[in-house]
Amino acid sequence: MKIATFTEGGRTRLGVVQREEIADVSVADARLPQDMVTLLEAGTEAQDALAAAAERAPRLALKSVRLEAPVMRPRKFLGLGLSFKSHVEEIRARGVPIPLTANQVWFNKQVTSISGPYDPIHLPRVSSQLDYEGEVAFVIGKKCRHVPADKASDVIAGFLICNDVSVRDWQLRSPTSTLGKSFDTHGPIGPWLTTADDVENPHDLRIRTWVDDELRQDGSTSDFVYSIGEMIAELTTVFTLEPGDVLTTGCPAGVGAMFDPPRFMKAGQKVRVEVDGLGAIENPVIDEPTN
């Protein structure tokens, strides 16, 4: 099932994407939650009711609605660095002074960076080092702590695409990376949440990123350094994960900073990230507005 957050007629709510249409489930069942976090908190019964409502709900043309970030305000938005072998190799080849470690390197992206799958990305007034990272993200479906790696699938609600947009000079200002990862509009996600039961193997998903019509990244989650189970086990050793938390899993080789010379994004360009089975997001780059 593909669950989207969409706006139509001045109202934002959940729908189920079916080919080129979206089932407006709130019309079929007004008791259903209207946002993703509330839906996930309500558990499997609410999700089953959403699926049932989709069978009898009126359809809207997908192109006639505005798709929003599937999870608009999660409690946590975390990213994993240095998690693809190919990306680690390209960093080593360039001799970039980023410490490589045998441990997982997680960082915060502030939730205010989240934007929709087709919303503009702002080129900051304070930097020209605007970079893309096409990634697979997963969304937590239930409150959990101390989850063994082999039980991680039990707590995943589904998967979506993320562009972990990065401002490289600000990323290197401190060891945490948070500032360079958290500019407003620098967390486009979507286009919808594909539920976990519809993703046959999350460790074998092809990821491609284009800037304009140029393919920059072409990799697969089969190149992960850590499994998704290991990611969840690591995080839940430390803190509780909650329904709606978005965890993005890192990117393959081909980021703009690793070209010689670097090839950062500019205003007027567009960046598209496509993941097999999950869809695509595409965002224009614009100068940061003055207000």
Tell me briefly what this model is.
This protein is of the alpha+beta class and 291 residues long. The protein has helices at 25-28, 36-42, 44-56, 85-94, 168-171, 178-181, 228-238, and strands spanning 2-8, 11-18, 21-23, 59-61, 66-67, 77-81, 105-108, 114-115, 121-123, 130-131, 134-140, 156-163, 166-167, 187-195, 206-211, 214-220, 246-248, 270-275, 279-287.
Q: Could you state the CATH homologous superfamily of the largest domain?
A: Fumarylacetoacetase-like, C-terminal domain
**Helix percentage:** 10-25%
CATH class of the largest domain: Alpha Beta
The computed structural class is: alpha+beta
Largest sheet: 12 strands, mixed
Supply Rg. Answer: 18 Å
Secondary-structure element string: EEEHHHEEEHEEEEEEEHHEEEHEEE
CATH architecture of the largest domain: Alpha-Beta Complex
Give the tally of β-strands.
19
Structural features, described:
It is a single chain. Strands 1, 2, 3, 4, 5, 6, 7, 8, 11, 12, 14 and 17 form a twelve-stranded mixed β-sheet that branches. A five-stranded mixed β-sheet has the order 9-19-18-15-16, with no helix packed on it. A two-stranded antiparallel ribbon has the order 10-13. The N and C termini lie far apart (39 Å). It folds into two domains: 2-67, SH3 type barrels (Roll), CATH 2.30.30; 77-287, Fumarylacetoacetase-like, C-terminal domain (Fumarylacetoacetate hydrolase, domain 2, Alpha-Beta Complex), CATH 3.90.850. The protein is an alpha+beta fold and 291 residues long. The radius of gyration is 18 Å and the shape is globular. The chain is 18% helix and 33% strand. It contains seven helices and 19 strands.
